[in-house]
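User: Let's play a game. I give you a shape written as tokens, and you guess the letters that built it. Ready? Here's round one.
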């Protein structure tokens, strides 16, 4: 996490990150029905850009990140009112059981490709999700390793059918995929998907 700690203070200086967060929030809000009361968990929240972009569409927000630098930035945003009705968690679902809480909406953006033990994290998302809640995953479509470089110890994006299989194994149902913006890097556009899943098999986007 040292790399993210070092980048945290200047993370929001990049207008492309703010634009991307707003675009992702728009896709989520236009794909699923939100009534403004949803208890939101953003996992791998970084500096809270997606939560900030969603805050007028949801209720109380919990933002979790394993980087202390990123958490410090989010705590400052909560303290100064930039992010309203928010709190920050220091929790790593790959290493620790899910806290005993429930959420109506779990959002994770460009985080899962950094996580080796996806099965454990997805199962812990299921434990945190209210029965009628929804999980929204935004991540890279499968790529050739150009995004982080071929030697990076990460997933090179995901094939949508393979992500659907992982979600099914974790107990999710009614899994839907949507195109969701892109990341510009190395003079290339890397497309992202939005996966929306529920636990009860009765999904209506």
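Assistant: Ready! My guess for every position:
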């Amino acid at each position: 996490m040292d790399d993210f700690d070092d980048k945290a203070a200047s993370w929001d200086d990049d207008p492309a990150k703010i634009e991307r967060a707003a675009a992702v929030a728009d896709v989520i809000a236009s794909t699923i029905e939100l009534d403004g009361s949803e208890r939101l968990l953003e996992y791998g929240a970084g500096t809270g850009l997606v939560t900030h972009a969603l805050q007028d569409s949801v209720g109380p927000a919990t933002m979790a990140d394993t980087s202390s630098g990123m958490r410090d930035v989010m705590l400052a945003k909560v303290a100064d009112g930039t992010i309203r009705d928010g709190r920050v968690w220091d929790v790593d679902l790959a290493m620790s059981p899910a806290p005993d809480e429930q959420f109506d909406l779990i959002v994770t953006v460009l985080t899962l490709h950094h996580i080796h033990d996806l099965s454990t994290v997805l199962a812990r998302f299921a434990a945190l999700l209210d029965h009628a809640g929804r999980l929204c995953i935004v991540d890279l479509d499968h790529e050739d390793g150009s995004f982080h470089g071929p030697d990076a110890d990460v997933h090179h994006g995901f094939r949508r059918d393979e992500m659907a299989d992982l979600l099914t194994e974790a107990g999710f149902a009614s899994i839907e995929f949507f195109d969701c913006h892109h990341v510009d890097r190395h003079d290339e556009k890397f497309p992202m998907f939005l996966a929306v899943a529920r636990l009860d098999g009765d999904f209506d986007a």
